[in-house]
Design brief:
Shape: flat
Strand order of the largest sheet: 1-2
Structural class: mainly alpha
Low-confidence stretches: none
Radius of gyration: 17 Å
Distance between the termini: 31 Å
Strand content: under 5%
Number of helices: 5
Helix content: 40-55%
Mean pLDDT: 93
Number of strands: 2
């Protein structure tokens, strides 16, 4: 499922607002994309930081909703018109979130 780290969403908004007006070719909206991952992939990535981490994933009725959503987002126009590039990929997002979680909980 397509996801984006909040810092990248804010970055995209600011980049678009600051882009040269002559480069903006779409007047209604741009797609911006980050990355996609599955519950298994997030589990495996978290285990790199917390080897004892366990997860139980039981899809409920919302899985049908998620299955109806697009599997990827094409942000080609944003890349072309105002050089959009996310800062965070999946691994960097998990690393950053773990860092802030440890900081908040006082874990080294």
């Amino acid at each position: 499922m397509p996801m984006m780290y909040m810092d990248d969403a804010m970055k995209a908004t600011l980049n678009l607002m600051e882009a040269e007006k002559s480069k903006i070719k779409i007047n209604y909206s741009y797609n911006v994309a980050g990355f996609s991952f599955t519950p298994k992939e997030i589990y495996e990535e978290i285990k790199k930081y917390f080897p004892a981490f366990e997860i139980e994933y039981n899809p409920d009725f919302r899985q049908n909703i998620a299955d109806s959503w697009v599997k990827s987002i094409d942000d080609t126009e944003a890349q072309r018109d105002w050089n959009w590039q996310p800062q965070f990929n999946f691994e960097e997002m998990v690393k950053t979130m773990i860092f802030h979680l440890k900081e908040k909980l006082g874990i080294s």
